[in-house]
Structures are given as structure tokens and as C-alpha cells.
Amino acid sequence: MMKLSGKLLVLIAVLVCIAVVSTGYAIFVTQTLQNERETGKSTTVLDDMGRIVHIGKVERIISTSPSNTEILFAIGAGHLVVGVDNYSDYPSEAVNITKVGDFISLDVERIVSLQPDVVFAYYGQKAGIERLEALGISVVTFHAETLNDIYHDIQLAGYICGKTENATNLVAQLQQRVEDIRSKTQQLNDTQHPRVYYELWNNPYMSAGPGSYINDLIRIAGGTNIAANASKDYPILSEEFILSANPDIIITSSMNIDSPEKIMQRAGWQEINAVKNHSVYMIDDNLVSRPGPRIVEGLETLAKIIHPEIFGN
After folding, report:
1. What's this model's pTM, rounded to 2 decimal places?
2. 200-222 residue pLDDT tens
3. N or C terminus: which one in the chain shows less Cβ crowding within 10 Å?
């Protein structure tokens, strides 16, 4: 049996959470609802698991995933956060907040002791969510698969925390930045979309396929994802497939490998265009693996890698 490293287990846990098909729904928040939240009245929302969640006045928040933490700080609700998961390290203020467990296993007792008014959780934490609900704690679960899902979660967090205007403004800014890139890459013809291999893991070779927002980011940035037609959103690729696809660009992160040279030195990879042209790049994994506001920074980084002639480098 193949032995998995700690890093890969964390990566798989994140990807499993992302991979489940969401039901998809929209939320429309009016100024009246914003005022209602600011006065501290109770409300009811539908979260990303399709659960109806009743929430009272929100003064103490716990986040159990890094993306949720980043959303809360980005909408101006960071001062309400009293507990975060072990991996929440952005912004810097999150580092010193009380830790409530890792991505897979929540410290329910610690969470209860912090007396939260609401917990922002992630889809894969079902066992912890059920225990918290049984104890009478309001839990709102996020599960974003696309950019639109991320925008929705930002808006929902804004409504719950009484920060609707901040959330709406943030989403508008993010959408504009995405459109700035899309408007340029849409003008490219078919021959101007370099083939891109995004390597999430190297043993076995794991990439991002259809249904993943990394695939969406590559497409918007003007690339052609070699795994775009895979049967899964996070497929395992054979070495033969990668070599035959002959990617023009290879992108990975420090979570997977120490340096681009490790990929360039692989036996049999020297004839790949990306290796021959020294087009192997490292990217901050947190910019593309966390479904929060910084995902657009990840898109901008990918655009500079894939089309430096348009976006600079």
C-alpha cells in the first residue's frame, strides 16, 4: 500500500472538500437586510450545504478554514474572529488568534469554550459540524467550486456579519480585476493559448481538471489546461500522458516540490517544451488553493506567467 505524506493528506482533504458537486443557489441582500443585521436581529440563511441556519446577533466568530478567515478579514469582520483553524495564517493578524484544530479534525471543546455566535466551517468538516450543531451552535458551511461560488460566499458572510456593503464592494472589485484579464485573453486566437500543466502533487502526478477553479483560472488567464478533458476535477495523470501532452508551461507550488529544477531534472522530461524553454514556474499555493478573495491575485499571477507579453512578469 502506498504511504501518503502529511502534506499530501492535507492536500487531498482540501481537494475532496472542493470536489463534491454543489447544489448552487443565489442570495440577494437588500439594504433593509443589511440594516436588520446591524441592529442585531436574528436571521435565517441557507448555507452551501443547503442547510437552513438560524443566527442571532454576531459578536464572536470562529473560522475553521483559511479561506473563510481571509473572507472575514477582507470584509472588515476580522475584529469579531475569536478562533481560527491551525492553517489560517493570512492576514498576519490571524496568526495570533486562538487555534481550534486542523482542517480535518476540529477541537469541538475549544470551540465551545470560546462561546461563538456563529462558526464559519468548510464542507469536509461534517463530523465537527454535526457535533457543534448538536450543542446548539450556529454553523454556516462554505463550499466554493467556482469564482461565482466564491463571490457568493463573500456576500453571504457580509450579510451574516452586518458587512453587506463591504462585501458587495469587494466582490465588485474582484469581478472587475477578473474582467480586466478576461477582456485581454479573449482577443487571443487558438494558437495563442499555450498548453499548461499545473502539478498539484508529484507522487502520483495530480493536476486540476474540469470543474475545478484552477482549471477556470488557467482558461481565463489565456492558457489551455492539458487536464481540461480529464474525467475528474482533480485527476491523477500518467507520466506518459504528460509527456505526450508536451506542455509549454509547467506550474507548481512549494507544497509539491522545492524548486522548478526538480521538475526540469526528471528523467525523460528534457524534451518537453516547458523544460526546454525553462518555462517551469513556482506559485504561492495559497493564492490558488484557498477559495477566498486572494484567488484573483492567483489569477493575476497565472496571467503574468502564461502571457508575460500582455501582463508583464
Report:
1. 0.86
2. 999 999 999 998 989 999 999 99
3. N
